[in-house]
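Module 6 notes. Inverse folding takes a fixed backbone as the condition and produces residue identities as the prediction. Think of it as a translation problem where the source language is geometry and the target language is the twenty amino acids. Below is one complete input and output pair. Work through it position by position during the lab.
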């Protein structure tokens, strides 16, 4: 496998496969609460880019649900990070933010969707991904729909898949 590009060293803690250790909590003002499982893949091919896939499943019947995939870039010499994301719902996003220690704080920088996307449209996403001192990865996602407040949609923790 390719040698890790030096630009990615600050994000090396993310690399590998992570699986939810217990079902995550989904919520939003407009929907009933739900549970889900999710597997995250972060890999690289020697470029200064992380490739990622997030695959979520219904916690009860295991059916595939939300999926997103994309690329992570870090502005060399800074702690500015960008996620370039495509979601199976028809949303595409650039999220940007900061890497602080082993915590990423991201917000929508640009967003587009299919012309026939369901309304109300997503207007803003904000997420925190962090490696906790106990070795678990944690992700919290909030979103705002057109004209509405930023409200939590997802909270989940993951363990590194043992190899
Ligand atoms: C609903 C956005 C990730 C599961 C929704 C809705 C939106 C949305 C706009 C519709 C809310 C409404 O109808 O008022 C997003 C965005 C995500 C994301 C932007 C990522 C950044 C996920 C993930 C799951 C998930 C990872 C895990 C399974 C659901 C479920 C609903 C829902 C079950 C309610 C039923 C439905 O409308 O399909 N989401 N979502 N979402 N989301 Fe997400």
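Target side of the pair, the amino acids:
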């Amino acid at each position: 496998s390719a040698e890790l590009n030096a630009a990615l060293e600050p994000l090396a803690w993310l690399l590998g496969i992570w699986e939810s250790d217990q079902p995550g909590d989904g919520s939003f003002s407009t929907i009933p609460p739900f549970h889900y499982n999710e597997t995250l893949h972060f890999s690289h091919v020697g470029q200064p880019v992380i490739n990622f896939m997030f695959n979520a499943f219904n916690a009860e019947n295991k059916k595939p649900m939300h999926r997103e995939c994309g690329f992570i870039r870090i502005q060399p010499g800074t702690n500015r990070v960008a996620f370039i994301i495509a979601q199976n719902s028809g949303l595409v996003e650039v999220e940007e933010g900061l890497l602080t220690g082993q915590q990423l704080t991201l917000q929508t920088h640009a967003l587009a969707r299919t012309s026939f996307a369901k309304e109300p449209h997503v207007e803003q996403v904000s997420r925190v991904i962090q490696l906790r001192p106990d070795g678990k990865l944690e992700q919290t996602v909030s979103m705002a729909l057109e004209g509405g407040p930023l409200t939590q949609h997802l909270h989940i923790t993951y363990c590194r898949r043992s190899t």
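Reference fact for the lab report: The two ends are 16 Å apart (CA to CA).
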